[in-house]
Amino acid sequence: MSDHIKIQPATGTWVVRAAGAVLGESNDALKLVEGDKPFVIYFPRTDISMAFFDKSETTTTCPHKGKATYYDLVAKSGTYKDTAWSYDDPKDDVAQIKGYLAFFVDNVAVEQL
């Protein structure tokens, strides 16, 4: 893996909450640090209540990670566009994040318990 991105287990239990609901909790989350950006916690999709999410039409491409697919959070209070993203087929250097979901923290709370 390049020096630009570092991935390691996110120690402890991590939870993601929004709109008054716990969307997921995991002891198997990953901590990804990219350059000088703040770290991002990636949750295994199997630990997230995917019933709250609809795949959006948004995609982006990162030169280091590959093509990202985005998800809208659908809650009783409304739909929050592009709240989460995932790499379905990440580049080899970051293959560990395949099957994981990360969140923009302006719409959700990501916390270590």
UniProtKB/TrEMBL annotation:
<feature type="domain" description="DUF427">
    <location>
        <begin position="15"/>
        <end position="104"/>
    </location>
</feature>
<dbReference type="Pfam" id="PF04248">
    <property type="entry name" value="NTP_transf_9"/>
</dbReference>
<dbReference type="InterPro" id="IPR007361">
    <property type="entry name" value="DUF427"/>
</dbReference>
<protein>
    <recommendedName>
        <fullName>DUF427 domain-containing protein</fullName>
    </recommendedName>
</protein>
<dbReference type="InterPro" id="IPR038694">
    <property type="entry name" value="DUF427_sf"/>
</dbReference>
